[in-house]
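Give me the fold.
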Amino acid sequence: MKKTTLRSSLAGLLMIASSGLAGAAEHATPREAQALFDQAVKYLQANGPEKSWAAFNNKKGPFIKKDLYVYVIDRQGTYIANGAAPDSLIGLKVLDSVDAAGNPLFRQMIAVTDKQQEARIRYVWLNRQSNHVEPKVAWLHREGEYILGVGYYAPRSTAENARKLLDAASAQIKKQGMAKSLASFNDPRGPFVHDDLYVFAINLASGKFEAHGMNPKWTGTNASDLHDVEGHPLVKEMLEQAKTTGEGTVDYVWRNPVTNAVEKKRTFIRRENGSLIGVGFYTE
């Protein structure tokens, strides 16, 4: 079997198996997910590996709540525990498996917990309840050679969410100044990137990106000539609104970095200290 075929097969198995709970259970909230994560970490530290694996793998036990479950991989990328589908996943090596956007999910889990004992990651996964690829967030904890995780499906951001993040970005600029704020906006794991929301900034004089939470490598590149997939000069419209009225709203079509699909988007923009800052949400 070719390597690419093997990866696809593993990814498909993981999506089907780990989404089995979602088909019959309501979505848990981020607060509920974090509570289960904290509970699982404390249980592992108090009871040790063997007793914990048995508890996490018990589909009728206390570590299955709504569409939440606990999973554990070792540092070689092999499943040790998985409450969603213990019979089919335990012992499966998933190191080279990817999420629905093609990202090396399990390698990322191992890499991020190499640097810190606890972390949070974002990825995209097939939700069998909705039959759509959706953003998912997981908390991770490294205990010796093992990585424990609990993930939840992140709700789609709303217009209100986007406005609140833009207001927070403005407040950050007023409090910390532009230079420190731009560094925060450019941090993909920082407070100005939430699921499918992120802050971007464009210098009004040069038309260049000063920050882009989802693609920091765009910083310093020309933004003014960007068009959406329908040919709409979205950034020129944003710049005109920022210069003339100070605030505005622009509608266009853009790739959602979470679902990896082209979707309708509405972005709120504002002029701050000679720069345009913006936050958009996907309306589909």
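The first strand starts at residue 64 and ends at 65.
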